[in-house]
Here is the input.
Amino acid sequence: MRLKDKIALVTGSSQGIGRAIAVRFAQEGADVVINSRSRDGLEEVLQEVEALGRRGLIVQADLSKTEDIRRMFATAIEHFGKLDVLVNNAGVENHAPFWDVTEQDYDKVLNVNLKGVFFATQEMVRHLRAGKRRGKIVNISSVHEELPFPNFTAYCASKGGVKMMARNLAVELGPLGINVNNIAPGAIETPINTKLLNDPAKVGALLAQIPLGRLGQTSDVAGVAVFLASDEADYVTGSTYYVDGGLTWHYEEQ
Here is the structure.
């Protein structure tokens, strides 16, 4: 088991990619802090983690609020005694033409996707520095840290910020033995893509742009997350791993 006896905190882990990562980490021997803004789905994930013989802890927290982030880390550390891995997975998006985006829309996306990642990472780094320990930080970014995505400008801005933040922190935190990397999923079958998945014409057009000819599964992302959280990735930092079936290099906006 590649994560035996590690303690991992996975934000936004009640469904989709976050849930898959939490469960896969447990399969690999980690105990897992499970998080979401609401309670929906968290108990089911906890049951899956515990069924694998690992310990789990539910901590509800809104990643757009720094006080919630601090409370989440304090609760997790008090319960488990330490954290070894942080997966910044929680994220939101908002579809709107640029000229219609409101300040509220912008704040909703940037506060979770960029501010939340920034301050969750800060709490993790403070914890690791205090214990003089190494650690791994894995951000679930998006292919849209690189690819334009019309009508999702705030989302692209947030993911572009996460890309640069990971590169900068890889340099700043490297001397502390803290690795920081991004995973950039492409078109993955998750609840956030339900509307797309129910539109055969759009799915067909999208598949035509994916060289591997299929949509991604949450397990595809979870497998890369395990690698980046494990000792196998000790010499990997500041990188983005695209889990997109080749979409990034074969993309044409429809």
Remarks:
- The chain has a mean pLDDT of 96.
